[in-house]
Amino acid sequence: MINLESEICRKIRDARREAGISQSALSLEVGCKQSALSMFEQGDGTKLNESVVNALCKKFGIEIGNKEETVPAIRTSPVFSNERGFCPNPSCPSHERYEIEGRLYLKPDREKQDPAYGKFCAICGEVLEKQCPSCGRKLHEGAVCTYCGHKYVSV
Predict the structure, then answer these.
(1) H-state helical runs in the chain
(2) Which 3-state string (H, E, C) describes 42-67?
(3) What is the bridge-based pairing of β-strands 103-107 and 96-100?
(4) According to CATH, what is the number of the domain 6-60?
(5) Taking the model in full, what pTM does it have?
(6) pLDDT per position as a tens digit, 102-146
(7) Quick one: angle between helices 6-19 and 50-60, nearest 10?
C-alpha cells in the first residue's frame, strides 16, 4: 500500500465523476474492491496498492510526483434508464440508516437520489449505480442484493 495526500485522492474521484463512471465499474476495471475505492476517494490514500493507483492515474491522465497533476476534460453523454439508480456514497444524507443484529445497513432512497432516472445523485452528485456492485444483477428494493447478499452501500 502507498500513502497519497487526500488532494490526489479527490482529484481521482473528481475525474471519475466527470467521466460519468460508477465506483463499481471503475473498481472492476482496475482490480480493486468498490469499498476500497470509496474510502480512497474520501481521502484515505492508504486503501489502494501502487499498481491500482497507477492504473487510475493513467486512465485519467493524473501524474503524481514532481510534475503538476492534470485532469483532462472527459465528457460522456448522459445515460438515461427506465430504472432508478442508487447512490453508492455512504455519506449521502438520503440513505436511511438501520441496524439488524448489530450490523449497520444503509437503505438508499432511490426516489430522492434519482427522481429523473438520471446518471448522478440528485442529493450529493455521485455517479449512480444501476446494478448490484457485486454480482451485476438488477436492483431490488432495500439495502441488500437478493441474489448475492451484498450490501448496496458499504458502510
Answers:
(1) 6-19, 23-30, 34-41, 50-60, 110-113
(2) CCCECCCCHHHHHHHHHHHCCCCCCC
(3) antiparallel
(4) 1.10.260
(5) 0.61
(6) 999 999 999 999 998 888 999 999 999 998 888 888 888 889 999
(7) 50
Q: What is the pLDDT of residues 29-58, one digit of tens each?
A: 999 998 889 889 988 888 899 899 999 999
Q: Would you state the cell numbers that stand for residue 47, as one nine-digit string?
A: 486503501
C-alpha cell at 5: 495526500
Asked whether the predicted pLDDT for residue 79 surpasses 50, the reply is no
Distances (CA, A) of 86 to 55, 57, 65, 118, 126: 26, 26, 35, 10, 9
What is the distance between the alpha carbons of residues 82 and 118, in angstroms, rounded to a whole number? Answer: 9
Domain residue limits, the chain = 6-60, 78-155
The number of C-alpha atoms within 13 Å of 150 and in the hemisphere containing its C-beta is 19
Residues 6+ positions from 64 with CB-CB distance below 8 Å: 4, 8, 53, 57
**Rounded CA separation 18/57 (Å):** 14
